[in-house]
Amino acid sequence: MNEDLAISVRNLVKKFGGFTAVDGISFDVCRGEIFGFLGANGAGKTTAMRMLCGLSAPTSGSGTVAGFDISRQPEEIKRHIGYMSQKFSLYADLTVSENLALFSTIYGMDAGAIRRKSAEVFRALGMEDMKDALVRDIPTGWKQKLAFSAATMHSPEVVFLDEPTGGVDPVTRRKFWELIYRASSGGMTVFVTTHYLDEAEYCNRISIMVDGRIKALDSPAALKEQYGAATMDEVFRIVARDARRGD
Fold it and tell me: CA-CA distance, 141 to 155, in Å (whole number)?
């Protein structure tokens, strides 16, 4: 096993009856890398992410996440990753502090560690005055920062972000990416899906799934050069133009 790799996948397949959702994908993600996982709805990226998170067993193929086998050690994977969805995964009727405590407990942190880490998060985000506020009463941008903090309180080796900036304004999206860069610079691996093609420019490398297969994988600059495109949006349109599945 290469210790420089946070994720390594070989010929990963997921079938549902006669339908092949993920069709033999292979890729590696380095530790500390921001890896963008793109594809239209129906391309198979959510199914692939579920396998990487230990939530769904592959039909065939192999893979490791944070050094653990996705087929044989799914529970170990769950303890060494963080996860944030588009819906932010927060409980609106709990306070900011209670949300952090809840998710930290789920990830196995003890009470002392939760208190220390919560204090660090409040200071870093400037949320000291909000810790007793109900989540439903705080602005969307703060909810987004809180959800990311909840997903990374336990300092996971890899954090999976599934459409984390959906439905928020451009300024809030830009600020959220500052959190991603900070986590990456600290050595955390970030695996992110997004529908915003401008955000793909912020990733170290990008993969594009089409009909269950990875059709392109490289840095944004290299992909734009390869396809003679000025933007990642143009690259995506070229790569996915013959897709049979999707929106």
Answer: 22
Query: Running DSSP on this structure, what letter comes out for residue 216?
Result: E
Rounded Cα distance, 67 and 39, in Å:
26
- Pair of tokens at residue 234: 């143009």
Q: pLDDT tens across 119-134, in order?
A: 999 998 888 899 999 9
Give strand pairing partners of 95.
Answer: 134
pLDDT for res 186 = 92
Q: For the purposes of burial, counting CB atoms within 10 Å of the CB of 31, is it exposed (0-12), middle (13-18) or buried (19 or more)?
A: middle
Is residue 54 within 8 Å of residue 70, measured between CB atoms? yes
SS3 131: coil
pTM of the full structure? 0.92
Instruction: Determine the Cα–Cα distance for residues 72 and 12; give it in Å rounded to an integer.
Output: 14
What is the Cα–Cα distance from 125 to 142, expressed in whole angstroms? Answer: 9
Structure tokens at 241: 């133009």
Nearest of 42, 52, 94 to residue 210 by alpha carbon: 42
Q: How many CB atoms lie within 10 A of CB 84?
A: 22
DSSP 144-157: HHHHHHHHHTT--S
Q: Map residue 243 onto helix, strand or coil.
A: coil
- 147 vs 93: CA distance, rounded Å: 14
In three-state secondary structure terms, 142 is: helix
Sign of the alpha-carbon dihedral angle for 148, 150, 156, 158: negative
Q: Are strands 158-162 and 81-85 parallel, antiparallel or unpaired?
A: parallel
How many helices, marked H, and strands, marked E, lie in the chain? 9, 10
